[in-house]
Amino acid sequence: MDIKVEQACPQCGAPIVIRETDRLLTCPYCEVKNFMRSNGAFRYYLPPRGENNRDKSMVYVPYFRFKGNIFVINEAGIGYKVIDTTQIGMDLYGLPPSLGIRPQAMPVKRLLPQTPGRYLSLTTRARTVLEKAIRLTPLRVERRETVRKPVTYDGENVVYDISTKMKTVEYSSHSRFLHRAFIGETVSFVYLPVEAGEEDIIDGVTGSLLLRRDQVSGNLLQGTPFNPRWQVQFMSTLCPRCGWSLDGEGDSLLMTCKNCDTAWSLGREKLEEVNWQMVPGDRRTALYLGFWKISGQIPALDIRSFGDFIRRTNQPIIIRSSWDRQKMSFWIPAFKLRPKVFLRIGRQATIGQWRLAPREGHVQDNLYAVTLPPSEAKQSVKVILAASAASRKKIFPFLPKVRLQDATATLVYLPFVDKGHDWYQPQSGITVAKTVLRFGRSL
Ligand SMILES: [Zn+2]
Ligand SMILES: [Zn+2]
Q: To 10 degrees, the CA torsion angle through 204, 206, 207, 209?
């Protein structure tokens, strides 16, 4: 579930409520647009009770917030799950190990230099906390199974109708895996305020007793002041090339310029230009969805061309000679989806890429927001490769050695047609349910 963040407009100071995935802040009052960036993760806190007359004894306990899809590949198939959790980042008996649904129950606030109080330091590594969170719930594993149905018996032999179907099973062991990836993850910090009185340590939000002061060793609740590195920076949204005002939705990682047909993403220090193309639509086109076209080669599997890929993954299609000259690309949805749908659409676009001919395009109004960064798309390559394999044996055992070399990323918008409940991509046959796309915005 999404958490809401109360954020002051850097221009006029008006309070605005945005979603945690929002990177672009558009003030409804003064209409000024700003990109938000920080060094490392964003930091929020749960607003304490009686926030306006707090005293200095308030201390803030750090919790890691993870949200994203986890994919685990082992001999049994591809396991996945959505992870959405807030886990304590320090070792202190008596404090809640997780914030549960509390960050969703009320808007959290962004940590600011003027927020009074002290901040406890992390003593646990993010990786360790994430590992624990992964182990806590079973994965769902999807695998292709052969179904043998006896149809006739000719007195001597049973004749079977053999088909395959996808089956989803629960799989609880995480101990042995061939590959694992966290895709589309949000990592942030949510601080729980606690009132550290003379005798009691009290939950600053609910007012309930957490533990007695004498149960905590002296300097554990000392904390440090606000670190200036945590401060969020706001950046202008004018096109770096032509100065025109850029367009984008709140949670979009990309902004486009209608004036000079460029696309921009937030780099470490400044806006960086993104290579993009589109497969031209026609009168029926209602929407363009972006895919990261990640090109490269995989020496461990002798995959250099699209033809190599089709052969290696045992696709039941006839290979055209031109495919051996076509560079291999993985087509990864550039928008967040539930894991099962992500696997299907990535597989369909990757296998169907020979039908897609991207070229230069013009920025238009019906470009759907890009919410998955190219770095995450690159991390999905092995997962989509595994999902594309018609036979596991020729791909799965090699996954630990698979590396995509000379990888390049281009964003390609594909045209979709409105089919009532679904969006339909005419060239590749990809369908995306409208509800699934909407749901992805909250992932
Ligand atoms: Zn404003
Ligand atoms: Zn421009």
A: -100
Domain that holds residue 166: 139-171
Q: What is the pLDDT of residue 344?
A: 95
Residue 333 lies in a domain: yes
| Tokens found for residue 192 | 């729980």
362 in the same domain as 347: yes
Task: Say if 359 falls within a structural domain.
Answer: yes
* Cβ neighbours for 64, distance < 8 A, ≥ 6 positions apart: 86, 87, 88, 89, 126, 129, 130, 187, 189
- Identity at 280, one-letter amino acid code: P
pLDDT score recorded for residue 103 = 84
Q: What is the pTM of this model?
A: 0.88
Q: Looking at the CA of 244, which ligand is closest?
A: 2
Tell how far the Cα of 276 is from the centroid of ligand 2, in angstroms.
Answer: 14
The burial class, CB within 10 Å (0-12 / 13-18 / 19+), for 99 is: buried
The pLDDT value given to residue 162: 64
Q: Output b/e per residue, 121-151; b: 16+ Cβ within 10 A.
A: eeeeeeeebbeebbeeeebbbbbeeeeeeee
Decide: 68 and 89 in contact? Cβ < 8 Å: no
Q: Is residue 198 located within the same domain as residue 78?
A: yes
Distance 22 CA to ligand 1 centre (A): 16
Instruction: For residue 60, give the DSSP letter.
Output: E
Going from the Cα of 359 to the center of ligand 2, the distance in angstroms, rounded, reads 19
Nearest ligand to the C-alpha of residue 263?
Answer: 2
pLDDT at residue 257, as a whole number: 97
Model confidence pLDDT, tens digit, residues 373-382: 999 999 999 9
Q: Tell me the CA–centroid distance for residue 159 and ligand 2, in Å.
A: 66
User: Which residues sit opposite 247 in a β-bridge?
Assistant: 256
Residues 43, 145: one domain?
no
Domain count along the chain:
3
Mean pLDDT check: name the lowest of 17-21, 325-329, 438-442.
438-442
Interval between CA 31 and ligand 1 midpoint (Å): 6
What percentage of the chain carries pLDDT values higher than 90?
52
Average pLDDT over residues 188-202: 90
**CA 242 – ligand 1 centroid, Å:** 24
Residues 429 and 367 in one domain: yes
pLDDT digits over 337-372, tens only? 999 999 999 999 999 999 999 999 999 999 999 999
Tell me if 92 is assigned to some domain: yes
Alpha carbon of 255 to ligand 2 centroid (Å): 10
223-263 tens-digit pLDDT: 899 999 998 889 889 999 999 999 998 889 999 999 999 99
Q: What share of the chain is helix, strand, coil (3-state, %, to 5)?
A: 20, 40, 40
